[in-house]
């Protein structure tokens, strides 16, 4: 058994489909292992899924655990959105990935959906009914069309607003379990920085941030960079590699080239302080698209108070939910808290239907 493992979630792109990249070929073969129950599944992949990814109607995901494929998913956008497919290997069934994928797929359809539905084998509904009901899928009726061999398919449906409330309620829990490649979900800090300097950080022209007071206990932690008014948005993240304190002259001469400001600006900030703290940043990530705070407030239905200087997310359910939501909307999940039990047969939560 592995003590630490890395789970990476890959979004299948139109380029992947058109050029048949290795990751699309892997995705296709994993989904096609349902062929015994769904004889037309390869046709469904090559027509509905491939065309849907090209048009933007569908999104497909491949999950890798230490480079081994263990999860696939397909979601269809629209007013009547559908979770077309979700397949998890048994070795990751107890790692909260079902919740993560439901949240991720809900985020994918949030701009379009009025209702969300999916189909599943009757036996799976009986086994996992509590899980589905916890997301608002209260009942399951026999599907009007049956594409699965050997067992009846049932149809579950719920209003999108009901599903979304369940997702938002889970965000703090998910934020404690998962991290994000390129977008943090568990960063213990949010740093408030003026827009000019925040953008210099994510552009790589500033790698040291000043504070009049700061604790060295944050050395080694990641922090989200929040650009203050008038931008009011998350622009990236970084790791606090070191915290150096000293008198202002010492700090200036040590870090003048990395501060991204003039001596006059430095002196204005420091004022009469006898001591100043230099936060040395590395592993800086610029978000592909800045995330406005007002958007996050809308998505989690809560007001978010930006920190005056910085804040810890550990005691803030709202900030934890906000960062998790940002990750769902823009990020790519990974985790180092998996404990795989080794190779295991694959299990489909609700396999692809060949005609949908």
In a nutshell, what does this entry contain?
This protein is α+β, with helices and mostly antiparallel strands and 356 residues long.
Q: Can you walk through the features of this model?
A:
With 356 residues, the chain is of the alpha+beta class. The chain folds into two domains: 7-181 and 335-350, Gcn5-related N-acetyltransferase (GNAT) (Aminopeptidase); 189-314, Archaeosine Trna-guanine Transglycosylase, Chain: A, domain 4 (Roll). It is built from eleven helices and 16 strands. The protein has helices at 14-19, 22-31, 41-55, 97-109, 122-134, 160-177, 195-203, 248-255, 263-270, 293-300, 317-330, and strands at 7-12, 58-65, 68-76, 80-89, 115-121, 141-142, 153-159, 179-181, 189-193, 208-211, 222-227, 233-246, 276-292, 310-312, 332-335, 346-350. The strands form two sheets. Strands 1, 2, 3, 4, 5, 6, 7, 8, 15 and 16 form a ten-stranded mixed β-sheet that branches. The protein has a six-stranded mixed β-sheet with strand order 10-13-12-11-9-14. A hairpin with a 3-residue loop joins strand 3 and strand 4. The radius of gyration is 23 Å and the shape is elongated.
């Amino acid at each position: 058994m592995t003590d630490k493992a890395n789970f990476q979630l890959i979004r299948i792109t139109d380029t992947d489909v058109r050029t048949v990249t290795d990751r699309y070929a892997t995705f296709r073969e994993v989904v096609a292992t349902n062929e015994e129950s769904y004889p037309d599944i390869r046709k469904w992949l090559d027509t509905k899924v491939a065309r849907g990814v090209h048009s933007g109607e569908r999104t497909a995901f491949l999950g890798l655990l230490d480079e081994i494929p263990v999860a696939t998913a397909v979601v269809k956008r629209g007013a009547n959105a559908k979770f077309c497919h979700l397949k998890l290997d048994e070795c990751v069934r107890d790692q909260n990935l079902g919740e993560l994928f439901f949240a991720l797929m809900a985020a994918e359809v949030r701009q379009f959906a009025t209702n969300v539905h999916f189909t599943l084998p009757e036996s799976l509904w009986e086994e996992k009914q509590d899980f589905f009901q916890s997301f608002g899928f209260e009942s399951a009726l026999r599907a009007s069309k049956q594409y699965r061999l050997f067992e009846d398919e049932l149809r579950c449906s719920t209003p999108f607003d009901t599903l979304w409330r369940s997702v938002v309620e889970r965000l703090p829990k998910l934020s404690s379990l998962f991290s994000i490649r390129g977008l943090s979900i568990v960063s213990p800090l949010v740093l408030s920085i003026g827009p000019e300097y925040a953008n210099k950080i994510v552009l790589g022209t500033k790698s040291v941030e000043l504070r009049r007071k700061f604790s060295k206990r944050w050395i080694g932690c990641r922090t989200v960079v929040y650009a203050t008014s008038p931008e009011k948005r998350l622009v990236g993240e970084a790791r606090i590699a070191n915290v150096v304190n000293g008198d202002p002259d010492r700090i200036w001469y040590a870090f003048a080239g990395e501060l991204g400001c003039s001596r006059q600006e430095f002196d204005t900030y420091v004022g009469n302080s006898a001591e100043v703290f230099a936060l040395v940043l590395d592993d800086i990530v610029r978000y592909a698209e800045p995330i406005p705070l007002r958007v996050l407030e809308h998505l989690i239905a809560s007001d978010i108070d930006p920190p005056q200087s910085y804040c810890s997310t550990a005691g803030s359910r709202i900030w934890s939910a906000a960062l998790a939501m940002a990750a769902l909307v823009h990020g790519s999940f990974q985790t180092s808290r998996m404990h795989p039990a080794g190779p295991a047969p694959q299990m489909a939560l609700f396999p692809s239907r060949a005609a949908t």
